[in-house]
Amino acid sequence: MTVHPHRQSTTGDGAAVLGRDGEIERILRCARREPGTPQTLLLLGEEGIGRTTVLGRVRERACADGVLVLSAQGWADDAGHGYGCLQQLLAPPVRGELAALSAAHQRVLTAVPRGDDGPDEAELHAAVTALLDRLAAARPLLVCVDDADLCDRVFLEALFAAARLLAGREVTMLLAARHESALPGPPPGTETLRLGPLSGTAAAALLDGQPAPPTGRRRLEILAEAEGNPLALVELSRGVQGLGHPPAEHVFGVRLDALPAATRQALLYAAAAGPGEPVAAVMAALGTDDLAVWAPAEAAGLVTLVEDRLVFRHPLARSAAYLGRPAGERQQAHRDLAKAAVLPEARARHLAGTTVGTNAFVAAALEASAWRREDAVVAAHALEQAARLSPGRRERARRLAGALKAAHLVGDPCWVRELYGRVVRESADPELVCAAAGALAAALSQESAQREAFELLADVSELFPVVDRTLALALAGLAAGIASQSGLPEHTAALATLLDRARQAEGSEQWPPAAAGPLVGLDTPHTRRALDALVTAVARPQSATSSLSGIGRPHGAQPVGPDAPAARALLAAVARQADESDVDLGQSRTADDRLRAARAFGLRGWSVLALVDTLVAIGRFPDAETVIQDAMNEAAVLRLPRLQADLEAQALTVRALRGTLPVAAPRLTPAVWRAVCLDENRATHARLLRGRGLAALAHADMEGAWRQLRDLFTADGAPLHPFLSARSIAELAVTAQRTGRSAEALPILERVRAEQGERPSTRMTLLLHHATAMVGPEGEAEEHFQLALVNHGANRWPWECGHVRLNYAVWLRRCRRTLEARQQLTTVLETAERIGAGALAAAAQRELRASGAAPAPADDGPLEQLTAQQRQIVQLAARGLSNREIGERLFLSPRTIGSHLYNVYPKLGISSRHQLRDLVQGR
User: Are 44 and 180 in contact (CB under 8 A)?
Assistant: First the structure.
């Protein structure tokens, strides 16, 4: 194997392929010459995007797969002359194969060309083709060329000619370059794979893996500035920590120094203006309208003009254009941009860039414009700057508290902790102390420290009587959210005290809505009543349905304006406690969209889990998966392990319901779950148990499902989590009935029924009747099945209705009422197919076949000759179920199952049970 000269990875060892698994697998499929893959693949990407890193890992993996790998790398000095890349391919392991070639081919390949005396191109093409053909005779061959746009053109044309002539052979050409335009015409069928920016999760992991990585606000700024470019992440991190050379001394600094002075100045102004600033604003600050000033930078590949925006081609180009200039020039640029600025927020930001020391006017301008863009990150940064520029301690403390509230909305715990410490050092004002405690408690809860978070709120609740009532109720509502997440009885019990103290708070105007920004908007009579009702419902769940009725759907008007997503999330939480799914979904979707646009994941993290639970409950599985994936990326970037754990558990639940689980046990991220204390995060634990229980059900593992779902309740039948455990009572009853544990499940069911109060919600009524039909008296089963389905409002939960109908059909078939069973199963199948519930659809199809209603599928192969029930038994046995487990599922004795299998073996041409899996999977 030929190895090109060593190039140090910009992404660091161990993190070299972060976020590139899909691209690497795609290339390896080509290297293995799998059907449908191209023979020539171009890997394109900008500087620092990770082309060399990907090629390095591909070479390692391909060699491990038995592929012969030849490597070469282009260099700028060799692009116009010589055959350096060809000589790299002909390293000693390959030279040994030259003897097998003709003398003419050997002469061409071993000659060292000088000047223009190189071999004839046709001869070179033939010789390279012969060599690659020879090497590919024994095993697949992969030719990797890095920086192909810097290789001599004759070499590249020889490779492309060989690819054309060796079509169909096990030869793969992989060429990495910045731009396709610099390469000669590739062979027909060539595909292009473009390396884009890293995902937010991968970029955060790479940044956090650097020596002395940044934290808090600066970490988020680097992630935004680097735009997913690995080299930019590494270089910007080094610049912040003082490690190595600052970004401005990178190669981009050299390119900038070669530009005319006017162009360098223009680029400084563009970099200072920030992304998205119109070119007209920058030109106005420069005092010119001549666009020719940008031409040298465009020719150098540093910037491009797109409509009315100037775009830096690389994040480090912007950094170098700004940090590479003296401080005085940067100050003047901000001064000129401030004069030309039209938007108040832009003017305030540039004025701050000109200010040394404190300045009350600029601080006030920053504060006044902080929320104009409704971006939590921008607002937090502006308010923090305003505090820094504030000459008075009182104003500084107030603005720091505003920055803390905004940082809490962003959701970065390090940033919140830093600002919290500064606020409490600056002020002892009860309003600011309480607001700061709320921000820190929210961050602690999202990290997983529920006890610490609740204790912090309990301590400051002594100040509730002397603060504004809206603030006190908001903190009591936050405590209710923490209590709901922890599931700890002591937290639930303490809520009454906190609520009483909040009700005693003054009804003053000391905490104006503007102090919390436009995303909150809790200072209305309706939202204050909702906060009170929510805390009451969490403290006394049995009163939820009656006490919350209508809270989420006020009479006569919209509950909140479009600029108050936190208020909408609150009303969604209220509706969810009462199982009002339509109100819950309407409010939470609107809130989620606004919070995502505002980069307010710190607040969104409180509502997104409930949104996913609701989407799953009403059967909108694709929507749930989309929200989960987006939220998981945000939680990973912000390093919120508890939220990551919840989202992983929800993803497992959705895959189980959709029937898309892998055969192997679902993989959860160990590092995430090690960071979460399940004892004080019982909501997370409950989601995990339900997800694992449904996964076991999807794999027909009734014993495993029972173990997981049984743990949703304590040994004496108390719910692990007061809200989530009760919503799994029907699933627990199903597994109890299938495993012969109805007597054990019945006391749990009765306790859940008692805790729901006299007026359970429509959903809970459905679930309680379903559970009773499964584990209650046999003579009452049909009555409870029908009571579960009689309320048309229950159709808002289609999966749960379908689950009832499925088990009702099983009961009907066992009673030999097959026609009625088929009617129920047909409805189940239609519902399951409509909502994409693959596991439920498969179960309905099995039951229909077992009832004789559906012919065997045409592609069943050897199973066609079996009866519907025999096919069902064979499929379950092929999954590894024992005779007893199959019998429990189909209401047959183990002896009957054994008899069926004994009779079908000769029909299938097999003699033992272990052959069933191969036969079923290979049919």
Answer: yes
Q: Residue 77: which pLDDT band, with cuts at 50, 70 and 90?
A: low
624 closest CA partner among 632, 448, 637: 632
Q: Please name the amino acid found at residue 133.
A: D
Angle at the Cα of 281 (from 275 to 286), degrees rounded to 5? Answer: 110
Beta strands 191-194 and 171-177 are unpaired
CA distance 873 to 501: 62
As given in the structure block, the two tokens for residue 605 are 């993290």
**Hey, which residues does 303 pair with through a beta bridge?**
312
Sequence-separated (6 or more) residues with CB below 8 Å from residue 861:
923
Phi-psi group of 411: left, alpha or beta (phi > 0 → left; psi -120 to 50 → alpha; rest → beta): left
Q: What's the whole-model pTM score?
A: 0.82
CB 581 within 8 A of CB 617: yes
HEC sequence for 465-482: HHCEHHHHHHHHHHHHHH
756: pLDDT strictly greater than 60 = yes
CA distance 55 to 658: 36
**One-letter-per-residue 3-state SS of 91-103:** CHHHHCCHHHCCH
Which residue blocks in 504-559 are alpha helix, DSSP H? Answer: 525-539, 544-547
pLDDT per residue as tens digits for the range 93-118: 788 888 888 988 888 888 755 545 66
Strand partners, 146: 73
Please give the structure tokens belonging to residue 586. 């309407």
Is the CB of residue 848 less than 8 Å from the CB of residue 819?
A: no
Report how far apart, in Å, the C-alpha atoms of 367 and of each of 227, 337, 389 are: 27, 19, 11
The DSSP result for 626-661, as a single string, is HHHHHHHHHHHHTT-HHHHHHHHHHHHHHHHHHT--
Amino acid letter for position 668: L
Token reading at 392? 């008075």
> Is the pLDDT reported for residue 590 higher than 50?
yes
Structure confidence at residue 664 (pLDDT): 66
CA angle 495, 574, 589 (to 5 degrees): 135
- Look at 917 and 167; give whichever has higher pLDDT: 167
> pLDDT tier at 14 (50, 70, 90 boundaries)?
very low
d(CA 658, CA 621): 7
Contact between 656 and 662 (Cβ < 8 Å): no
pLDDT tens-digit map of 885-912: 787 776 667 777 877 787 787 778 776 7
Decide if 735 contacts 770 (C-beta within 8 A): no
Name the percent of the chain in helix, strand, coil, to the closest 5: 65, 5, 30
CA of 638: how far to CAs of 7, 443, 502, 517, in Å? 32, 11, 31, 21
CA–CA separation, 52 and 54 (whole Å)? 5
By CB neighbour count within 10 A (0-12 exposed, 13-18 middle, 19+ buried), where does 227 fall?
Answer: middle
Q: Which long-range contacts (CB under 8 A, 24 or more apart) does 338-341 make?
A: 339/285, 340/281, 340/284, 340/285, 341/281
d(CA 538, CA 485): 11
- What end-to-end distance do the CA atoms of the chain give, in Å? 42
CA dist., res. 849 & res. 840, Å (int): 14
504/835 Cα distance (integer angstroms): 48
Angle value at C-alpha 762, between 756 and 764, nearest 5 degrees: 40
Rg (CA), the chain: 33
718, amino acid identity = A
Give the bridge partners for 43, in sequence order.
176, 193
Distance (Å, rounded) from C-alpha 464 to C-alpha 471? Answer: 8
- Residue 388's φ and ψ, nearest 5 degrees, are -65, -35
